[in-house]
Amino acid sequence: QGSLRKAARTGSAGGYGSVERMTSSVRWGAPTREMTASLLQMRGKGMSAGLGGYLTPWSVLLIFVPLGVLAGMLDMSKTIIFITNFLGIIPLALVLGTATEDIALYTNETIGGLLNASFGNAVELIISINALRLGLNDLIKATLIGSILSNLLLVMGCAFLFGGFVFQTQEVSRAIVSSTTGLLAISVFAFTIPSVFALTSGSRTEVDRVSLLASIGLFSLYLMYLFYQLVTHKNLFEGVEEEEEKGSPNVSLPAAIAILLVTCGLVSWTSEYLVDSVEGFAKGLGLPSFFVSVILLPIVGNAAEHFSAVTVSMKGKLDLSVGIAIGSSVQIAAFVAPFMVIVSWIFGFPHLNLNFHAFETVILVLVVVVINVILSDLRTDWLEGAILLVAYIIVATAFFYY
Asked: DSSP string of 260-310?
């Protein structure tokens, strides 16, 4: 052992020379023998492989898009407005995800990664912006925290469960787990500080300021993470696309751009009616409005992720499935949430903060711990999927009575 340590320090020739090479630094731009797909690549490839095209069994729900808009324009009952627009946004989310991936396939890895980072959670972003305009800050926070929990427990749980019905066990790359859980952990940390601060001695104004600074730091870290993947350490991920089967676009580039723009407009239009009808829908059915915001609304935003993650998992591509679920959670926590806080300050809306209150914060921390435990052995099966789904049911039940 002493000679091994000496050889490692001095770099002497002989049988232990490989130890020195293993521990040496890597120069900027130098090629690496081990390459792995970045978070943006894994999420993008997973969405492309999972969605499969613009026409899916869910496309029949597109009929609810004009019905939902008509119900909103005619000022029908809040229950009808909510249900029709809720069902209408689900296929729109799938179309939006497909169009984004089609455009990305026409570009290089850098532009494709930026597209995925920008439009990967467009539905949640549009819903949040409409809620911010209406002054529904509590709905925004509930929807964002619900989207993170839905991706980590419901989406990943279904992917593990249905994938486990096809394969006895599946393995996930250590690089995928390590590259995503770190940013997810710091995001949860940034959420926890304002919540704990509010519990101690912080006034509303002070909590808002702490949230703003935390959001700026978190958003800056997300931009640095993109810069890391797409610029400074791009060589670590180059060549991965060529080693794996690359999908082909479903339509031409102009058609994909047109579909993306039209779909974004429709999502914005229908989500405005959806957000405005949440409270009336909850009262009409005797449901807590918080439960509707934290459990039901994220189903709309995560429709594309849910469909894609389950599909690719059943094809034996668990890395893509995990990349979709955790990647979407990271984008919501590190991009959408801090972005909305910053926007509320810039444009003079009622200040949105990161105070998710003690109950929601503790649940989020516990869920991240559970996810790390589940993925610690880098293997999954249907039982672990069932564990995550049961955890989600327990969380949903707690929110129902919250």
From this structure: HHHHHHHHHHHHHHHHHTHHHHHHHHT--HHHIIIIIHHHHHTHHHHHHHH
